[in-house]
Amino acid sequence: MAMDIDKLAKALHESQGLPGDPSKEMKGMADAIISEMKTMGIVSMLPGTVMGTATPEGGALKNGSAGPGLILGPSGPTLAAQMVSKMGKGGSTPQMIGYAAGITTHVLTGKVMFAGGKITGVCGNSPASPGPVSGSGSKGKIVGLSAGGMAQLVVLGIGQTQVTDTVKKMCEAIVNHLQDDAEVSFMMGGILGTAPSGGGPIAGSGAGGKIS
Protein backbone atom coordinates (compact mmCIF):
# COMPACT_ATOMS: atom_id res chain seq x y z
CA MET A 1 0.00 0.00 0.00
CA ALA A 2 0.95 3.66 -0.27
CA MET A 3 -0.73 6.97 0.40
CA ASP A 4 -3.32 7.82 -2.26
CA ILE A 5 -4.80 11.28 -2.90
CA ASP A 6 -8.16 10.04 -4.14
CA LYS A 7 -8.54 7.57 -1.26
CA LEU A 8 -7.73 10.19 1.37
CA ALA A 9 -9.96 12.78 -0.32
CA LYS A 10 -12.86 10.33 -0.26
CA ALA A 11 -12.26 9.56 3.42
CA LEU A 12 -12.14 13.28 4.28
CA HIS A 13 -15.30 13.90 2.27
CA GLU A 14 -17.19 11.02 3.89
CA SER A 15 -15.99 12.05 7.35
CA GLN A 16 -18.03 15.23 6.97
CA GLY A 17 -21.17 13.35 5.91
CA LEU A 18 -21.20 15.04 2.52
CA PRO A 19 -23.01 13.51 -0.48
CA GLY A 20 -21.53 12.93 -3.91
CA ASP A 21 -17.85 13.07 -4.83
CA PRO A 22 -15.08 14.99 -3.06
CA SER A 23 -14.76 18.62 -4.08
CA LYS A 24 -11.67 20.06 -5.76
CA GLU A 25 -10.81 21.72 -2.45
CA MET A 26 -11.08 18.43 -0.54
CA LYS A 27 -8.84 16.72 -3.11
CA GLY A 28 -6.43 19.62 -2.71
CA MET A 29 -6.32 19.12 1.04
CA ALA A 30 -5.60 15.41 0.61
CA ASP A 31 -2.89 16.25 -1.93
CA ALA A 32 -1.36 18.81 0.46
CA ILE A 33 -1.17 16.36 3.38
CA ILE A 34 0.34 13.59 1.27
CA SER A 35 2.77 15.95 -0.46
CA GLU A 36 3.93 17.25 2.92
CA MET A 37 4.58 13.72 4.17
CA LYS A 38 6.44 12.74 1.00
CA THR A 39 8.55 15.86 0.52
CA MET A 40 9.25 16.88 4.12
CA GLY A 41 8.94 13.62 6.05
CA ILE A 42 12.19 11.92 7.07
CA VAL A 43 12.41 8.84 9.28
CA SER A 44 15.32 8.16 11.62
CA MET A 45 16.13 4.99 13.51
CA LEU A 46 18.23 5.73 16.58
CA PRO A 47 21.22 3.46 17.41
CA GLY A 48 20.02 0.16 18.78
CA THR A 49 16.58 0.29 17.19
CA VAL A 50 17.59 -1.81 14.16
CA MET A 51 17.81 -5.48 15.04
CA GLY A 52 18.51 -8.80 13.39
CA THR A 53 20.89 -11.72 13.43
CA ALA A 54 24.20 -12.20 11.64
CA THR A 55 25.33 -15.71 10.78
CA PRO A 56 28.81 -16.81 11.95
CA GLU A 57 30.18 -16.39 8.41
CA GLY A 58 28.43 -13.07 7.71
CA GLY A 59 26.37 -12.60 4.57
CA ALA A 60 22.63 -11.95 4.49
CA LEU A 61 21.07 -10.44 7.61
CA LYS A 62 18.47 -12.71 9.17
CA ASN A 63 15.06 -11.55 10.47
CA GLY A 64 15.90 -7.86 10.31
CA SER A 65 13.42 -5.56 12.04
CA ALA A 66 13.39 -2.01 13.39
CA GLY A 67 11.57 0.38 15.66
CA PRO A 68 10.45 2.59 17.09
CA GLY A 69 11.64 5.12 14.54
CA LEU A 70 11.21 8.89 14.66
CA ILE A 71 9.28 11.01 12.14
CA LEU A 72 10.94 14.34 11.40
CA GLY A 73 10.30 17.22 9.02
CA PRO A 74 6.61 18.07 8.54
CA SER A 75 5.61 21.47 9.95
CA GLY A 76 2.63 23.79 10.15
CA PRO A 77 4.02 26.52 7.87
CA THR A 78 5.11 24.13 5.12
CA LEU A 79 1.83 22.17 5.23
CA ALA A 80 -0.09 25.47 5.14
CA ALA A 81 1.90 26.46 2.06
CA GLN A 82 1.00 23.12 0.46
CA MET A 83 -2.66 23.74 1.30
CA VAL A 84 -2.57 27.18 -0.31
CA SER A 85 -1.04 25.70 -3.46
CA LYS A 86 -3.11 22.53 -3.73
CA MET A 87 -6.46 23.93 -2.55
CA GLY A 88 -6.34 27.05 -4.72
CA LYS A 89 -6.32 29.47 -1.79
CA GLY A 90 -5.18 33.06 -2.21
CA GLY A 91 -2.83 32.84 0.74
CA SER A 92 -2.39 31.29 4.15
CA THR A 93 -4.13 32.66 7.24
CA PRO A 94 -3.22 32.30 10.92
CA GLN A 95 -6.10 29.85 11.26
CA MET A 96 -4.86 27.75 8.33
CA ILE A 97 -1.33 27.67 9.76
CA GLY A 98 -2.75 26.70 13.16
CA TYR A 99 -4.83 23.93 11.62
CA ALA A 100 -1.83 22.64 9.70
CA ALA A 101 0.38 22.87 12.80
CA GLY A 102 -2.09 20.76 14.75
CA ILE A 103 -1.89 18.02 12.12
CA THR A 104 1.90 18.03 11.76
CA THR A 105 2.66 18.38 15.49
CA HIS A 106 0.69 15.22 16.15
CA VAL A 107 2.25 13.41 13.19
CA LEU A 108 5.67 14.01 14.76
CA THR A 109 4.58 12.04 17.84
CA GLY A 110 4.04 8.95 15.71
CA LYS A 111 6.56 6.13 15.50
CA VAL A 112 7.69 3.86 12.68
CA MET A 113 7.99 0.07 12.94
CA PHE A 114 9.46 -2.50 10.55
CA ALA A 115 8.28 -6.07 11.07
CA GLY A 116 10.68 -9.01 11.00
CA GLY A 117 12.13 -9.56 7.54
CA LYS A 118 11.43 -6.01 6.33
CA ILE A 119 15.00 -4.91 7.10
CA THR A 120 17.44 -6.67 4.80
CA GLY A 121 21.18 -6.29 4.35
CA VAL A 122 24.64 -7.75 4.27
CA CYS A 123 26.80 -8.46 7.32
CA GLY A 124 30.58 -8.23 6.96
CA ASN A 125 31.54 -10.22 10.03
CA SER A 126 33.40 -13.53 10.13
CA PRO A 127 33.87 -16.25 12.77
CA ALA A 128 36.95 -14.38 14.00
CA SER A 129 36.08 -10.70 13.63
CA PRO A 130 33.17 -8.25 13.72
CA GLY A 131 32.10 -6.41 10.60
CA PRO A 132 29.82 -3.71 9.25
CA VAL A 133 26.17 -4.12 8.36
CA SER A 134 24.69 -2.26 5.40
CA GLY A 135 21.04 -2.64 4.56
CA SER A 136 17.69 -1.29 3.44
CA GLY A 137 14.12 -1.32 4.69
CA SER A 138 10.69 -1.70 3.11
CA LYS A 139 7.04 -1.56 4.14
CA GLY A 140 7.58 0.21 7.45
CA LYS A 141 4.37 1.34 9.14
CA ILE A 142 3.43 4.48 11.07
CA VAL A 143 1.90 3.74 14.48
CA GLY A 144 0.92 5.57 17.65
CA LEU A 145 -1.32 8.31 16.22
CA SER A 146 -4.84 9.06 17.46
CA ALA A 147 -7.72 11.09 16.08
CA GLY A 148 -8.42 12.55 19.50
CA GLY A 149 -4.85 13.66 20.02
CA MET A 150 -4.64 15.31 16.62
CA ALA A 151 -8.04 16.98 17.05
CA GLN A 152 -6.98 18.52 20.38
CA LEU A 153 -3.95 20.12 18.73
CA VAL A 154 -5.98 21.30 15.75
CA VAL A 155 -8.56 23.13 17.88
CA LEU A 156 -5.78 24.76 19.89
CA GLY A 157 -4.14 25.84 16.66
CA ILE A 158 -7.27 27.53 15.34
CA GLY A 159 -8.00 29.23 18.65
CA GLN A 160 -10.95 27.13 19.77
CA THR A 161 -11.45 25.39 23.10
CA GLN A 162 -13.62 22.36 22.30
CA VAL A 163 -13.16 19.52 19.83
CA THR A 164 -16.11 19.39 17.47
CA ASP A 165 -17.37 16.21 15.87
CA THR A 166 -16.45 17.68 12.48
CA VAL A 167 -12.81 18.20 13.44
CA LYS A 168 -12.47 14.84 15.17
CA LYS A 169 -13.88 12.90 12.20
CA MET A 170 -11.60 14.72 9.78
CA CYS A 171 -8.60 13.95 11.98
CA GLU A 172 -9.73 10.32 12.17
CA ALA A 173 -9.68 10.14 8.36
CA ILE A 174 -6.15 11.55 8.28
CA VAL A 175 -4.82 9.29 11.06
CA ASN A 176 -6.38 6.17 9.58
CA HIS A 177 -4.91 6.88 6.16
CA LEU A 178 -1.41 7.49 7.50
CA GLN A 179 -1.43 4.38 9.67
CA ASP A 180 -3.16 2.07 7.20
CA ASP A 181 -1.68 3.21 3.88
CA ALA A 182 1.60 5.09 4.33
CA GLU A 183 4.79 3.07 3.87
CA VAL A 184 8.30 3.88 5.02
CA SER A 185 11.44 2.73 3.25
CA PHE A 186 15.21 3.05 3.54
CA MET A 187 17.41 2.84 0.47
CA MET A 188 20.39 0.46 0.51
CA GLY A 189 22.96 1.96 2.85
CA GLY A 190 20.32 3.81 4.84
CA ILE A 191 20.57 1.08 7.47
CA LEU A 192 23.99 0.74 9.08
CA GLY A 193 25.28 -1.27 12.00
CA THR A 194 27.81 -3.71 13.37
CA ALA A 195 27.70 -7.50 13.39
CA PRO A 196 29.68 -9.34 16.10
CA SER A 197 32.43 -11.84 15.43
CA GLY A 198 31.00 -15.31 15.18
CA GLY A 199 27.54 -13.95 14.42
CA GLY A 200 24.65 -13.07 16.67
CA PRO A 201 22.46 -10.00 17.32
CA ILE A 202 23.40 -6.86 15.42
CA ALA A 203 23.19 -3.26 16.64
CA GLY A 204 22.08 -0.81 13.97
CA SER A 205 20.51 2.51 13.10
CA GLY A 206 18.85 4.15 10.12
CA ALA A 207 18.89 7.58 8.48
CA GLY A 208 17.03 9.21 5.64
CA GLY A 209 13.94 7.00 5.58
CA LYS A 210 11.25 8.18 3.17
CA ILE A 211 7.45 8.08 3.50
CA SER A 212 5.28 7.18 0.53
What does this structure look like?
- By secondary structure, the protein is an alpha+beta fold.
- The chain has one domain (5-211).
- It is 39% helix and 35% strand.
- The chain is built from six helices and eight strands.
- Helix 1 runs antiparallel to helix 6 (165-181), helix 2 packs antiparallel against helix 3 (76-87) and helix 4 packs antiparallel against helix 5 (147-157).
- The longest helix has 17 residues, at 24-40.
- The protein starts with a helix and ends with a strand.
- The model has no long low-confidence stretch (mean pLDDT 96).
Based on CA atoms alone, the radius of gyration comes out at 20 Å
Count of individual beta strands: 8
Percentage beta strand = 35-45%
Report the major sheet: 6 strands, antiparallel, barrel
Tell me the count of domains: 1
Low-pLDDT windows of residues: none
Tell me the overall shape. elongated
Order of helices and strands: HHEEEHHEEHHEEE
Determine the fraction of residues in helical runs and give it as a percent range: 25-40%
- Read across the widest sheet, the strand sequence of neighbours is 1-3-4-5-6-8
Derived structural class: alpha+beta
Query: Distance N terminus to C terminus?
Result: 9 Å
Number of H/I helices: 6
Average of per-residue pLDDT values: 96
Quaternary state, please? single chain
